[in-house]
Design goal:
Helix content: over 70%
Distance between the termini: 44 Å
Order of helices and strands: HHH
Radius of gyration: 14 Å
Strand content: under 5%
Number of strands: 0
Oligomer: single chain
Number of helices: 3
Length: 77
């Protein structure tokens, strides 16, 4: 189970870095944080898992999405 989660973490991190759309990158980063929290819980660190889920997947996702929404989009044509 941990090997599958670690492979998914690598895939999500690569997708986050290579994503052309910032919002998709933020959503992938949020999924990365949730998988990290799951991995921490599996390794018997529930306090770290709760913190990662709250801060990593919760607060930072809201802040990043709000910052993206507040900026102007300029597409290259």
């Amino acid at each position: 189970m941990t090997i599958i989660i670690m492979i998914l973490l690598i895939v999500l991190s690569l997708y986050t870095l290579s994503s052309r759309d910032l919002l998709y990158g933020v959503i992938a980063l949020s999924a990365f944080s949730m998988l990290s929290a799951t991995l921490f819980y599996i390794f018997n660190a529930p306090d770290v898992a709760i913190t990662e889920a709250a801060v990593g997947a919760g607060v930072s996702t809201v802040i990043f999405a709000w910052a993206i929404r507040s900026t102007e989009r300029k597409d290259q044509e």
